Amino acid sequence: MLRLIYGLLFILFFPFITTSQKKAEKQENLPRPKLVIGIVVDQMRWDFLYRYYDRYSKGGFKRLLNEGFNAEQTYIPYAPTVTAAGHTCVYTGSVPAIHGVAGNNWYNLKDRRVVYCSEDTLVKPLGTDHKSNGNMSPSNMKVTSICDELKLATNFRSKVVGVCIKDRGAIFPAGHTADAAFWFDSSTGRWISSTHYMETLPGWLVKYNDDKPVERLFQQNWTTLYPKETYTQSTSDEKIYEGKYKGYYSTSLPYILDTLGKKGNSLMAATPWGNTMTAEVAKLALENYAMGKDEVTDFLALSFSSPDYVGHQFGPNSIEAEDTYLRLDKELESLLLYADKTVGAGNYTVFLTADHGVAHVPGFLIENQIPSGQWNSTRAVIDLNEKILTQFGIKDAILSEQNYQLYLDTDAITEAGFDQSTIEKFIIHELNDADGIHTSFSLKDLGIVALPAHVKEMLVNGYNPTLSGHIQVILESAWIDGWLTGTTHGMWYNYDSHIPMVWYGWGIKQGTGYKKRSMADFAPTLAALLKIQVPSGSIGQVVEEALK
Ligand code: ZN
Ligand code: ZN
Q: Which pTM does this prediction carry?
């Protein structure tokens, strides 16, 4: 009888036991998202999240902001605030002083030449004959990226792909061990890669290129998404301080692009269609690498470069910039819907940020009574070298200006019988007399120079002893290194360093944070979320308030 009762109990509870056993077994597997999509929007100052908020659609920026976690006070921890250093910091949690990507370019004093951040003569270009566009790898990056750590943590079973119009926006994020990084060759209008990643370009990308994406997308020309008079967040369209497309007669929308033919390739990046093309390649990469399809986490490192090109040329207060963001919003919506469909809503994690912000166009600020101006580094170096030649008899004492730093010909100075410090003092005196320069100083004195601790810390983090120059220049607020049209970024000021930090999806809480956060916090937070090692050079902190 007792045996019968036990038997009945067993039959009754057996299904329960097995399902709970299954549950327990399931929970023994480490929970991780199937896919991470990192989105960098090149030059997206933090306020652009809200500047055009009312006209963003529900499924794009608003979906990330309203359903995800927004760390509102996130800043770049170093200067110069430029593209290569920014993308590298986001993915390594590190700063130029450590990660070695000290700028888009720097000057090599030994070889006496300007070095491009991702150049690599040991690799060959794939998909182009233009070596200057294709000889690229992350070899100048001295640390691991979060994508390298994901690869190491999964014994290289994770798939990692970087996609960006700019090579540097794909290469450094994807890291040393990526399956692929793809970027755009503006001389041929084709997406390319290098032998650092693979032997031949994948067939699907060759086909995409053969279908001539630039000519196809330029058939639409560039008219505003909504009637032009509704662009109330921007100054009127024809302004003398806006830059013109090469060979184009005006700075007013609409732009006629469908007649450009091959000439369109070089313009592509500076139109919203550059973002469209980037999103198309990203979706093809997700599909063809079968990303987010199995239990091993994959990583898509995606960066949209066109907002930067548009911003440089027309400025952040232009109708062109507003329209570019409204259209990018649609691309984001479409990308998220694509991930919902292929990976499953809730199965992937997204973060959105920028590599740096941007200053307003000086002409626009002056028009509105805000102090601003242009200091031109090329002109300044020519003038200074003339003065040094007259005074000290040294020819071309300043070899180069990169990242607001001057590189000196120390051999020539010694040969002429002068102390380096004598020439430095002369240059600093001249610079500090010039309009628009807040201060300049010898980088030898970086530890003792009289600057607020916050500014000094940013400069220390940006200073790489083997790559940086001899004299640092700091411009006044809203002064830029440039000519009469357009604008740029690169300084420590908040318009250049305040960036979005938005988290969304798997493992992310809904909310808003006002604690001060750093660009270096992305990588350690991803490491915590994915339960993988923190990148080797990371100095950031976990954004714990964003994690479930
Ligand atoms: Zn950039
Ligand atoms: Zn830029």
A: 0.94
